[in-house]
Amino acid sequence: NEAIPEVSKQGISIKQIVKRTGHSRKLVRSVLRGQRSDVFRVRQSSLEAWLPWLDSRLEQGARKASALWSDMREKGFCGQIGVVSEWARRRRLAETTDQSAFARTPSAPAGQLASLAVPLVVALAGKDELIDPDRCRAFLAEHGANVLACDALPETKHLDIILDAADFLRRALVILEGGSK
C-alpha cells in the first residue's frame, strides 16, 4: 500500500506507477488522492523487489515471461511463473495502449472541425502533457467558427480535464441558455 505514494514522491508519473506495479490507473489515482488506502491485495507482491530488475531486462529487449521467470528463479525469486506472466501481460497491454492514442489522431482536423454543425465548448488542460493549450486555442481560433467558449483550466493535467471540467461546462451552459455568469 505504501509503495504507490512512495514511488509518487520520487516524481514518477501515474502512467509509470501503473506500469511498474501492475495496478489499475483508477486504483493508483484513488490511492494518491487519499480516497483509498487499501489496495485489493494487502500483502506485498512477490514481484515488488524485482520490479527494477524487470524494467532493466525489458529495456534490454527481454519479452518472454517464461525466460524472465527462469532467470529470476536462478537469482533467488520464489514466486510462481503466473505472477511474472501476468505482470508481463499487463506491461505489454500498457505499452500497446500508449500507442493507441496515435491511431485516433484526426487526419484532417481543420476540415473535421469545420464540418461540425453544432456549437462547441472546449475545455483544455492547462498543464497537459500531450497537447499544448496555446497551440490548441490558436487552432480553434483559426478553424473553429462554431466554438462558443474555449478555456484552459490552469492546474489540470491531460485526463484530469474530464473530472475538473464540471464548473467550466456549467458556466458554458449558462451562456448557451442566454444567461450571464
What report would you give on this structure?
The chain has 181 residues and is mainly alpha-helical. Helices cover 54% and strands 7% of the residues. It is built from ten helices and two strands; from the N terminus they run H-H-H-H-H-H-H-E-H-E-H-H. The protein has a two-stranded parallel ribbon with strand order 1-2. The chain is elongated and about 70 Å long. The mean pLDDT is 77.
How is this structure best summarized?
With 181 residues, the chain is mainly alpha-helical. It has helices spanning 3-9, 14-21, 25-32, 51-59, 65-74, 81-103, 109-115, 133-143, 161-164, 166-176, and strands at residues 120-125, 147-153.
Supply the key terms.
181 residues, single chain, 2 strands
The dominant shape is elongated
Average pLDDT over all residues = 77
Order of helices and strands: HHHHHHHEHEHH
Number of helices: 10
Radius of gyration: 22 Å
Major sheet characteristics:
2 strands, parallel
Widest sheet, order of strands: 1-2
> Structural class, please?
mainly alpha
Separation of termini? 44 Å
Q: What percent of residues are in strands?
A: 5-15%
Helicity, in percent? 40-55%
Model regions low in confidence, pLDDT < 50 over at least 5 residues: none
Would you report the number of β strands? 2
